Amino acid sequence: MTTTAPAPVPPVPAPASPAPRRRRQRSNRQLTAGRSVYAVLGVAVLLSLFPLYWTLVAASRTNTEIHRMPPVLLPGGRLWHNLTQVFAQTDLRLAMVNSLVVAGTVTVSVVLTSTLGGFAFAKLRFPGRGPLLASVVATMMVPTQLGIIPLYIMMANWFHWADHLQALIVPAAANAFGLFFMRQYLIGAVPDELLDAGRMDGCTTRGLVWHVVLPAARPAMSVLGMLTFMAAWNDFYWPKVVMTQQNPTVQLTLSELASGYIKDYSLVLTGALVASAPVLVAFLLMGRQIIDGIMQGATKG
Predict the structure, then answer these.
(1) Distance between CA atoms of 21 and 254, rounded to whole angstroms?
(2) Containing H/E element for 103?
(3) For the segment 126-152, what is each residue's pLDDT rounded down to a tens digit?
(4) Judging by beta carbons within 10 Å of its beta carbon (0-12, 13-18, 19+), is residue 51 exposed, middle or buried?
(5) How far apart are CA 97 and CA 106, in angstroms?
(6) What is the mean pLDDT of the chain?
(7) Which residues does 101 contact at the CB level (< 8 Å), separation at least 6?
(8) SS3 breakdown of the chain: % helix, strand, coil, rounded to 5?
(9) Which residue has the higher pLDDT, 89 or 15?
(10) Cβ burial, residue 220 (10 Å; 0-12/13-18/19+)
């Protein structure tokens, strides 16, 4: 008699571990959260760029088309005509040159003096360092408007610089914010051990500034340079006091465009579009360094 072997019993699959399922759920939630963040950032970028886009639209339309309801959202074909009218009605070329000279000179001066002063307050030891730094920071609490009258008397009566670019450059050649900003950055960006090693190798203080401090401070210098350039370029109050329309800056010229009884907003926004171009170019040139400086500051924080 033959015996038959029993049929093999199929293996029972092991129950799925809950750990991979939880990991998949967690990754799905992270993916959803990431998409939500990118969506919010995309909306924020669009909202930030819309004023610039609307300026372009208005600069390429007539004054009547700007006030049309519903509003037009596409550029027109009058941009070149409006540009011609703006340059014909105002001395925008001279104003652009003046603003570039003032903003560029002030930016270089502020970045240089702030970096050197910030390094001195951050890494050098000298008598009275604390009280001197406190007095510099205290000047940031004084409103600018309080010093306008004595500053104008000084520029007009003492130096005879009224309606000259020196009156815009010299008072802004150094500021307390830039010095304090660079000091705070250099405290963590330049270790004391690195400076001590350089001194042991025979490097002077001037050599340390050139070979150690300036390369380490480049991101912060770019951020400070961009902020200073924008502040000098957009300044209106002090140029309105000390300058005239015979030697204007960009902001004075834009105010002249908007000073008529019947304002042509297409020309005003055309001038604003032209005035925004140098700031955009400066940001494109220094954008990488600015982002690096912001990221380094966030990492240290």
Answers:
(1) 62
(2) helix 92-123
(3) 888 889 999 998 988 888 888 899 999
(4) exposed
(5) 14
(6) 84
(7) 165
(8) 75, 0, 25
(9) 89
(10) buried
pLDDT for 220 beyond 80: yes
Distance, in Å, from the CA atom of 162 to the CA atom of 155, rounded to the nearest integer, reads 6
Among candidate residues 266, 240, 238, the one with its CA nearest the CA of residue 253: 240
Read off the pLDDT of each residue in 89-106 and give the average, rounded to a whole number: 92
Note the pLDDT tens digit of each residue in 148-166: 999 999 999 999 999 899 9
Question: Model pTM?
Answer: 0.81
Q: Which amino acid is at 277?
A: A
Backbone angles phi, psi at 165, to 5 degrees: -65, -25
Enumerate residues 6+ apart whose C-beta is below 8 A from 15.
Answer: none
* Neighbouring C-beta atoms of residue 210, cutoff 10 Å: 12
pLDDT tier, 11 (very low <50, low <70, confident <90, very high otherwise): low
pLDDT at residue 65 is higher than 90: no
The secondary structure of 9-53 as a DSSP string is PPPPPPPPPHHHHHHHHHHHHHHHHHHHHHHHHHHHHHHHHHHHH
Q: Which two tokens stand for residue 210?
A: 């050139």
User: What is the rounded CA–CA span in Å between residue 118 and residue 192?
Assistant: 14
Coil, helix or strand at residue 244: coil
What SS3 class is residue 1? coil
Is pLDDT above 50 for 301? no
Reduced to 3 states, what is the DSSP secondary structure of residue 2?
A: coil
- HSE (CB half, 13 Å, CA atoms) of 91? 12
Asked whether 162 and 155 are in contact (CB, 8 A), the reply is yes
How far from 281 is each of 65, 216, 274, CA to CA, in Å?
29, 24, 12
Helix (H, G, I), strand (E, B) or coil at 192: helix
